[in-house]
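About this split. The held-out portion is used to measure sequence recovery: a designer receives only the structure tokens and must propose an amino acid at every position. Recovery is the fraction of positions where the proposal matches the reference. Here is one held-out target exactly as it appears in the evaluation file.
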């Protein structure tokens, strides 16, 4: 049985689309979820100028993340001190405090400390592609994967051991968005006349179905997941899919969450509710 889950993501709202239903189900069943966010998303979009300005966006998005954590029952989020690097190829990639260019050992050391402090049974982060290639997502993947391996090794960051003990999580999971799920989403968006944006490249950005090892039915916590998504108002323009798709289509898409089991190697495909898969082992 796994009781403590730690998710390491890059921006406020990364916790919503692919994992919020799982986290809500776990906390509802008595588990603990710790959210770690590397940046405050300060170069993200602003859906409505009434919500934020470029100067206030970081503070607003941090507040949105805290509301989202409350909606799914997670602990108050832990934010690192890095700056949003922006999309690949933009000038924000070159900012001196951008997360994507931070010294790897510095980031990994912070994550190892958090793992040793909170002692998660399960660590969750992005897959190697970062979902769709965002440099901060890829940086989070790399750092979290290394931290998963290093946190239990007393030879790694030994200066921490005066106050903390080594801790090795039992399971490393990568958030997965199966290509079949993206294809279904794209079809429903097209039928509704909604712009697909990056989703139109789902054959490149999605997770190949054969790489999905855990498929979760989160229909019982759908409302909490939708609340989490809606907390991030600055990132939800009027044409966003959860504002424009038919309610029944949206529920169909959002009621399924998937993961790749990165370590240890899986011995079988698992399907069920979050409680059945993680809390009744």
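Reference sequence for scoring:
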């Amino acid at each position: 049985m796994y009781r403590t889950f730690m998710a390491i993501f890059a921006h406020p709202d990364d916790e919503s689309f692919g994992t919020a239903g799982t986290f809500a189900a776990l906390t509802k069943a008595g588990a603990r979820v710790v959210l770690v966010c590397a940046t405050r998303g300060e170069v993200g979009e602003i859906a409505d100028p009434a919500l934020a300005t470029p100067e206030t966006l970081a503070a607003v998005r941090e507040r949105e993340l805290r509301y989202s954590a409350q909606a799914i029952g997670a602990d108050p989020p832990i934010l690192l001190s890095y700056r949003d690097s922006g999309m690949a190829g933009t000038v924000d990639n070159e900012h001196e405090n951008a997360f994507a260019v931070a010294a790897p050992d510095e980031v990994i050391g912070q994550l190892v400390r958090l793992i040793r402090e909170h002692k998660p049974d399960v660590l969750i982060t992005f897959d190697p592609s970062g979902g769709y290639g965002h440099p901060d997502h890829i940086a989070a993947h790399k750092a979290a994967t290394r931290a998963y391996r290093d946190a239990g090794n007393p030879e790694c960051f030994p200066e921490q051991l005066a106050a903390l003990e080594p801790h090795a999580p039992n399971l490393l999971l990568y958030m997965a968005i199966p290509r079949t799920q993206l294809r279904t989403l794209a079809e429903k968006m097209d039928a509704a006349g909604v712009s697909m944006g990056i989703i139109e490249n789902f054959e490149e950005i999605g997770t190949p179905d054969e790489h999905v090892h855990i498929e979760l039915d989160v229909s019982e916590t759908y409302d909490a997941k939708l609340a989490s998504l809606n907390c991030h108002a600055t990132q939800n323009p009027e044409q966003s899919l959860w504002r424009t798709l038919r309610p029944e289509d949206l529920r169909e898409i959002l009621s399924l969450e998937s993961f790749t089991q990165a370590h240890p190697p899986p011995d079988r495909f698992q399907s069920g509710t979050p409680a059945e898969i993680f809390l009744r082992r």
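Annotator remark: The domain at 4-279 is CATH 3.40.50.10320 (Rossmann fold).
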